[in-house]
Amino acid sequence: MDIASIIGLVGGAALLVWAIAMGSPLQAFVHLPSMLITYGGTAMAMFVQFPLESIKEIPRIMRKVFVVKKQDPTEVIAMMVGFAQKARREGLLALEDEAQQLDDEFLKKGIQLVVDGTDPQLVRNILEVELTFLEERHSSGAGILVFWAATAPGFGMVGTLIGLIQMLGNLNDPSSLGPGMATALITTFYGALAANWVFNPMAQKLKARSSEEILLKEVMIEGILSIQAGENPRIVEEKLKAFLAPGERQRPVQERGAPEGVGVSA
User: Fold this and answer.
1) Could you say which residues of the chain have pLDDT below 50?
2) pTM confidence score
């Protein structure tokens, strides 16, 4: 569970309600027509922009903002070093059993290709193609939230124009000025809130998560090819640690501990 996202949404809501309550009644900011224009309008625009299959994926995409399955890159490096040691001692065929026990399908495929004796360049090409399509799927998911964030303020402005038209069309009726002005202003408020507090931050978080996963897959590709080339495990370790931030390279991978069943000792 991503605590930061929950803190941002719940804490933001609490601060917003508190700030509004300090200056005016909360019900003054609850306006159903404005909600229908802003949120209903953006929802319908998404049906125009995206196919139904993509719309059905929205709950799963938003769930990824709050549910994180994050791997530690140093654990992946420790795993690759362990594989390199086993391959040097027992040969590449010895990794077949290890591959079957892996949960990561990308890494499992890479190790299996190596065990099957696939040409190194072909191994790289296959894994990089899969990585490219993975990145495109991630970009497509984040793109839905980006569109949502970009559209919400626009429909807020539409609501503002509707409210102004209603207000100006009934200047001879003072009782209509208040509702018209409320629609004019609150729709802009709803649109700006949705874009800057919810959808755009969610999209940026998904993009950051995608970058982390892509980096991890690149570590796996480089490790797989190094194992296939029969490189020394220490060389493999140093090569893969180059993917880490400088602060993460200080301690040896062995000290961080490898996943159960994968040795990293010399």
Assistant:
1) 255-266
2) 0.77
